[in-house]
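We were asked to recover a plausible sequence for a given structure. The inputs and outputs are reproduced exactly as logged, with field labels preserved.

PROBLEM: sequence recovery
POSITIONS: 294
GIVEN STRUCTURE:
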């Protein structure tokens, strides 16, 4: 297949693109940086991407978006929202102009859509929450859904905490844990829905290649854990103790409103990809952490 990947320079792109190329797909990368061979320049906020390419695109994977893990100042909120909502709108408009449209759009979303749900088990039928992240995710998905109206199959992947060493949350957590300074957050009872980067890459490829796949998929492993269990297993994987607990109020003061990413509880399960026949390489956290860290 001939595939366009937006946000190709990012953490998920770094796992996905080798997965696609090993499977003999051809990848055209989109990013805001200077145009290079194999790359197309596109700033999602400012306009539509140039998708008129020979041979025509078979699929698009849309990953671009301003990082959420930063202080949510007014301008950061605008960038976080616009890069996703306006960016997806611009992408779908560009698809609409094509005579030969791609068959499928796989669009990133996030489990932030579910908000803080305690011990509730969340499959793809669970309703959204309210608040900044949940609202952005909903509007992001609504823009992707407009591609359905122009005859494109759409799979929206609500991505959880992606585990890989060269980026994402684990890349940030690894150094303190390695120094024996790992800490659970509060009482550690909040659920963390994680996925190994390799499994997320394989899931995106599976969604793209499976003609019957559509709608929402939770991009998480089938075995979410509490923060206390995650802390215990990460400390064990790096063979260091994790005796400390970071009080929630300090995290709120230090990080402001974006602290909800660390404090909220989402116990998600990937019911839709499992029903579609997707099989995880690393469904359990222990082996997933060892796969990343060894
Ligand atoms: N990693 C996770 O744990 C996780 C969890 C849930 C959801 N997701 C979602 O999955 C997608 C990919 O995640 P990721 O971890 O690969 O993200 P990432 O490493 O932050 O990369 C995203 C890419 O988006 C582009 N980008 C950044 N700021 C932008 C802006 N203001 N406007 C337009 N484009 C911008 C960048 O590409 P250029 O600089 O080359 O343009 C960047 O490489 C994101 O939409 C993210 O929200 C990720």
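RECOVERED SEQUENCE:
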């Amino acid at each position: 297949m001939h595939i366009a990947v937006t946000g190709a320079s990012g953490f998920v792109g770094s796992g996905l693109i080798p997965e696609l190329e090993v499977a003999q797909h051809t990848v055209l990368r989109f990013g805001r940086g200077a145009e290079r061979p194999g790359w197309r320049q596109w700033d999602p906020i400012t306009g539509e991407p140039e998708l008129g390419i020979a041979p025509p695109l078979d699929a698009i994977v849309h990953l671009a978006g301003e990082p959420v893990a930063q202080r949510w100042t007014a301008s950061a909120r605008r960038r976080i929202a616009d890069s996703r909502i306006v960016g997806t709108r611009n992408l779908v408009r560009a698809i609409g102009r094509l005579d030969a449209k791609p068959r499928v759009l796989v669009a990133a979303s996030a489990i932030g859509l579910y908000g803080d749900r305690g011990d509730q088990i969340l499959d793809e039928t669970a309703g959204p929450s309210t608040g900044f992240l949940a609202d952005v995710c909903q509007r992001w998905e609504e823009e992707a859904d407009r591609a359905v109206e122009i005859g494109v199959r759409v799979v929206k992947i609500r991505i959880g905490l992606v585990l890989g060493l060269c980026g994402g949350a684990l890349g940030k957590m690894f150094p303190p844990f390695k120094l024996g300074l790992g800490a659970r957050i509060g009482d550690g009872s909040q659920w963390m829905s994680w996925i190994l980067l390799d499994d997320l890459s394989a899931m995106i490829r599976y969604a793209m290649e499976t003609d019957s796949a559509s709608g929402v998929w939770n991009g998480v492993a089938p075995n979410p854990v509490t923060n206390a269990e995650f802390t215990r297993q990460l400390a064990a994987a790096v063979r260091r103790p994790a005796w400390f607990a970071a009080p929630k109020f300090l995290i709120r003061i230090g990080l402001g409103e974006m602290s909800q990413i660390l404090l909220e509880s989402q116990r998600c399960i990937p019911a839709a990809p499992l029903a579609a026949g997707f099989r995880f390489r690393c469904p359990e956290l222990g082996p997933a952490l060892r796969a990343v860290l060894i």
